[in-house]
Specification:
It is a single chain. By secondary structure, this protein is an alpha+beta fold. It has 23 helices and 15 strands. The strands form three sheets. Strands 3-2-1-6-5-4 form a six-stranded antiparallel β-sheet, with helices on both faces. A five-stranded mixed β-sheet has the order 12-13-11-14-15. Helix 11 runs antiparallel to helix 13 and helix 19 packs across helix 23.
C-alpha cells in the first residue's frame, strides 16, 4: 500500500473511531488543535465521514465537535493575539526605559505596529515648528521614494485632520474621502505608494499634537476598535519617547553651560540609575505576573516615598483630569498624582505621598510606572473577560441542554472551580430602572452582567446575560435558603451597579451535570418569581416561590403542596399529633361557620369557652395575625389541601 493510501486509511480510522472511546468524534479535531492546523483543515474529518457513508448521527456528532473545536481555536488565536500585543507594548516600554537612540525606538514602534495590525505599511510624521509644516520621520514597508520624503503643510491630508481634532481618524478609501483637504503633493505620494485604507492616531504631549502615527493598506480595509486602541497605545509610547529624548537634550544643553557640571552630572546619573532600577524591577514584575500593588511597592523603594494605587473615585478629580490631559504626573499639595489610563478610559492613579519636591526624572519614573500599571490592568481585565465568557458559555449550554455528557460538563465546570454536583440555586436578575436612551440601557445591562460575572467568579458559580437581564447559578451553602441567597444577591448587585436590581430564585436543584434540563426548568421558576416581585411592587428585592404563600404554588416548578401546608399550618398539625387535641378540626369548623364562635360550638357540640380556648391556642401557634384576610385565605387553602392528602381524618 502506498504512503498516501496509508495516510488516508489512518485518517479514515481516526474519523470512524474504531476502538476509540465514546467521544471519538472529538479526537480528529483535538489532533488538529494540537498541531495548530488551519481553519480549512477542520472540514476534512466531516468530508471523509460523508464519503465513507457514515450514519447521520455520526456526522452530526462530528459537526458538533468541529464547531466546538473551531470556537476553541478562535479563543486560542485571540489569546495569542492579545499576548503578542501586550508583549510588544512591554518590549516597547522596556526600550523606552533604556532609551539611547530615539530613531531606533521610533523605528521599533513603527515596525511592531505594522506587524501586529497586519498592514502593508506603517509610518510616523512629526511637526516642524520652525518651518511650519510636518515631515515623514520613520516609515516601515514603504516602496515609494517620493512618499518617504513628503513634507506637508499644516492641516493638509488625513494627518492634518488628526492634528486639528487630536482624535484618531480612519478612511476605508482615501481618494473617495472628502472629510479632509486633498492636495496634489499628498495625493501624488499616496498614489505612488498605492495606499487605499489609512488609519492615523495623534502623538500627544499634553494638549499639543506633535505628530501622527499611521497604519495603511494597499486595499480597502475596515480597522477594528481594538486595532485603533492598540495603535493609540503605540502612539502614546512614541510621544513618551520623543518627550524623554527632548528632556535629555534639554538636560544636556543646560549642563553644558554650568560650572558645576560634574556635580550635576553625578546627580543626574544617580537619578537615572534609580529610573533604570525601577524599570528593571517593573519588567521583572511583569514577567513573573505581579500586580498593581507590587508596582507601587517597587516604585516606593526607588523614589524613597510611599506610592499607592488609588481608584478613580478616591483620587482628587482636578489633579487626576489634569494628569490625564497633560500626560504627566501633577502636583497636588504635597503629593504627586500620575493618571493610569488606557485610551480614553481612566483606570485609577499612582499617588506619591508627602513628596512635594520631585526630580523631573523621578517624575518621569512615576509616569512610566503609571503606564506599566495600565498595561497590567488591561491584561487582568482581558483575562477576566475571557473567564466571564467561558462561564457564560457553560451556563448557556446548561440552560439550552445542548451538551448532555455529564463527564464533559463536570470537567468544564471544574476548570472554572465550580462543582455541578453541589446544591445550587438559579437566580434571574433584572434592572428595574428604565431609560429612553437605548445606549444607556445597554450600558446598564453590561454593568449588571459584569457585576454578576464577578459575583459568580468569587462564589464558584456561573453567570450569563439572557432575556434582557442576567441569570446566575450559585451554590447554596449549608443552612442557607434560596430566599436568603436571592436577597443577598439583589443587595450585592444593586450596590455594584448603583441601581435597583430585583432577583427571583428557584428552589434548590441538585446533580446538574446528570440532569441539565433541571437548570432550564429552575430558570423558568426564577423568572416567574421575578415577574411576581414586579407585580407586587417589590422592586430591588429578592425572593423565592416559598415567600409568596399560596401564590408560590403557582410559581414553583415542582408545586410543593406539602411544603406549603407545612409552612402554613404545620405548628397546629404537630401540636395535635403530640397532644391528641383537635385544633385542626376546630379551625376547619370555625372557617366553615363564617368565623363565628357561637355557630362553631354548635357544629362541634362543645361549650363556647372551649372554642375560645382552642382558637387562643391556634393564635399562639400561628401568630396574632392569623385571622387577617390574607393569612386566613392561606390557612383555609392549607386546611383543604391537608384534607385532600388525608381524607380519613375528617
Amino acid at each position: 500500500m502506498s504512503s498516501d493510501h496509508m495516510q488516508s486509511a489512518e485518517r479514515s480510522a481516526t474519523v470512524t473511531g474504531a476502538g476509540a472511546p465514546p467521544n471519538s468524534a472529538e479526537v480528529p479535531f483535538l489532533e488538529l488543535l494540537a498541531r495548530g492546523a488551519s481553519a480549512d483543515a477542520y472540514e476534512q474529518p466531516v468530508l471523509l465521514a460523508r464519503a465513507e457513508g457514515r450514519s447521520v448521527e455520526s456526522i452530526a456528532a462530528l459537526e458538533h465537535a468541529k464547531s466546538l473545536a473551531l470556537r476553541v481555536r478562535s479563543e486560542l488565536e485571540g489569546r495569542r493575539r492579545r499576548e503578542a500585543e501586550l508583549s510588544a507594548l512591554f518590549e516597547t516600554a522596556h526600550d523606552l526605559a533604556g532609551l539611547r537612540d530615539l530613531d531606533a525606538v521610533l523605528q521599533a514602534i513603527v515596525q511592531r505596529a505594522r506587524s501586529l495590525l497586519g498592514t502593508d505599511i506603517a509610518y510616523l510624521s512629526l511637526n516642524d515648528p520652525a518651518r511650519g509644516d510636518t515631515y515623514m520621520r520613520v516609515t516601515e514597508g514603504s516602496v515609494a521614494a517620493r512618499f518617504q520624503q513628503l513634507r506637508l503643510g499644516m492641516g493638509e491630508g488625513l494627518g492634518g485632520l488628526v492634528a486639528q481634532t487630536a482624535r484618531p481618524y480612519v478612511t476605508d478609501d482615501y481618494f473617495k474621502d472628502d472629510r479632509f483637504q486633498h492636495t496634489l503633493t499628498i495625493d501624488s505620494g499616496v498614489r505612488d505608494e498605492g495606499l487605499v485604507a489609512i488609519l492615523g492616531v495623534p502623538l500627544m504631549l499634553g494638549h499639543r499634537v506633535i505628530g501622527v502615527l499611521f497604519a495603511a493598506d494597499r486595499r480597502a480595509r475596515v480597522f477594528e476598535r481594538e486595532q485603533i486602541a492598540l495603535l493609540g497605545s503605540f502612539a502614546a509610547l512614541a510621544a513618551a519617547a520623543i518627550d524623554t529624548a527632548n528632556l535629555l537634550t534639554e538636560t544636556r544643553a543646560a549642563l553644558a553651560g554650568l560650572k558645576r557640571a560634574n556635580e550635576i552630572i553625578q546627580d543626574r546619573s544617580g537619578v537615572i540609575e534609580r529610573a533604570s532600577d525601577v524599570h528593571d524591577r517593573l519588567a521583572e514584575l511583569v514577567l513573573r505576573g505581579g500586580g498593581v500593588h507590587d508596582v507601587a511597592a517597587a516604585v516606593s523603594q526607588v523614589l524613597d516615598g510611599v506610592v499607592e494605587f488609588t481608584e478613580t473615585d478616591a483620587t482628587p478629580t482636578r489633579a487626576l483630569e489634569a494628569s490625564r490631559a497633560e500626560g504627566h504626573a501633577v502636583r497636588h499639595r504635597d503629593d504627586w498624582i500620575a493618571a493610569v489610563a488606557a485610551g480614553g478610559e481612566l483606570l485609577g492613579a499612582l499617588v506619591l505621598r508627602g513628596h512635594p519636591g520631585l526630580d523631573p526624572v523621578d517624575q518621569r519614573t512615576l509616569e512610566r510606572a503609571g503606564m506599566v500599571t495600565s498595561l497590567l490592568l488591561l491584561a487582568r481585565r482581558s483575562a477576566a473577560e475571557a473567564e466571564q465568557r467561558v462561564r457564560g458559555e457553560l451556563l448557556d449550554d446548561l440552560l439550552d441542554a445542548r451538551d448532555r455528557d455529564p463527564r464533559l460538563l463536570r470537567e468544564r465546570a471544574s476548570r472554572l472551580h465550580a462543582d455541578l454536583d453541589a446544591t445550587h440555586v438559579v437566580l434571574a436578575a433584572r434592572l428595574d430602572g428604565t431609560t429612553a436612551d437605548a445606549d444607556q440601557e445597554a450600558a446598564a445591562r453590561r454593568r449588571l452582567w459584569s457585576a454578576a460575572s464577578h459575583l459568580a467568579g468569587t462564589r464558584h458559580g456561573l453567570a450569563a446575560a439572557r432575556d434582557g437581564g442576567t441569570v446566575l447559578l450559585l451554590p447554596l451553602d449549608s443552612g442557607d435558603t434560596a430566599t436568603d441567597l436571592a436577597r443577598r444577591t439583589a443587595a450585592h448587585l444593586g450596590a455594584a451597579v448603583h441601581e435597583a436590581v430585583t432577583v427571583g430564585a428557584s428552589a434548590p436543584v441538585e446533580k446538574l451535570a446528570a440532569q441539565p434540563d433541571a437548570v432550564a426548568a429552575a430558570y423558568e421558576e426564577g423568572r416567574r418569581c421575578l415577574d411576581a416581585l414586579g407585580f407586587l411592587g417589590r422592586s430591588g428585592d429578592g425572593a423565592a416561590a416559598e415567600d409568596f404563600g399560596f401564590l408560590g404554588l403557582l410559581l414553583a416548578g415542582d408545586r410543593d403542596i406539602g411544603g406549603f401546608v407545612e409552612r402554613t399550618i404545620g405548628p397546629v398539625t404537630r401540636y395535635d399529633e403530640r397532644r391528641g387535641t383537635d385544633l385542626l378540626r376546630t379551625l376547619d369548623a370555625y372557617f366553615a361557620c363564617g368565623m363565628s364562635p357561637a355557630r362553631t360550638k354548635d357544629d362541634l357540640h362543645v361549650h363556647v369557652n372551649t372554642v375560645a380556648q382552642r382558637l387562643e391556642r391556634v393564635g399562639r401557634l400561628l401568630g396574632e395575625d392569623w385571622q387577617d384576610p390574607a393569612r386566613a385565605l392561606e390557612i383555609q387553602l392549607a386546611l383543604r389541601l391537608h384534607r385532600l392528602a388525608a381524607p380519613t381524618r375528617r
